[in-house]
Write a structure and sequence with these properties.
116 residues; mainly alpha; 0% strand; rod-shaped
């Protein structure tokens, strides 16, 4: 803190009084600079803390979005697989029916036509 110098009104000369006043002003300036520096550093620490919280929040959001996107992609793949399975089953049945129908003799062709 500031040094308080006691001055003797009658015994001190003018240069010593000026030196004491200068010393007091210098100490006051140093105290102001010290408090300003402490305040500035505290503000920067608060800003750093808030920035860190914002970045962490952003990272968590990105992680949740990525997790949701992967879950959605898995569901899309499952739906496409089910659709492909149903399509292939239907195609298999259609081909089996077509082959079975092709192997059976046609009754119209196999039956003798009425005699003339």
């Amino acid at each position: 803190m500031a040094n308080k110098t006691e001055t003797k009104p009658t015994t001190e000369s003018k240069p010593e009084t000026a030196l004491a006043a200068t010393s007091t002003v210098v100490h006051l300036a140093l105290d102001v600079a010290d408090k300003s520096q402490s305040t500035a550093i505290a503000i920067l620490q608060d800003a750093r803390t808030e920035l860190r919280a914002a970045v962490d929040g952003g990272i968590e959001l990105a992680e949740k979005v990525a997790t949701g996107a992967l879950r959605f992609a898995k569901k899309v793949v499952a739906k496409l697989d089910d659709a492909a399975k149903d399509g292939l089953s239907g195609t298999e049945r259609a081909l089996a029916t077509a082959v079975k129908t092709a192997r059976e003799p046609k009754r119209e062709l196999a039956a003798p036509s009425p005699a003339n």
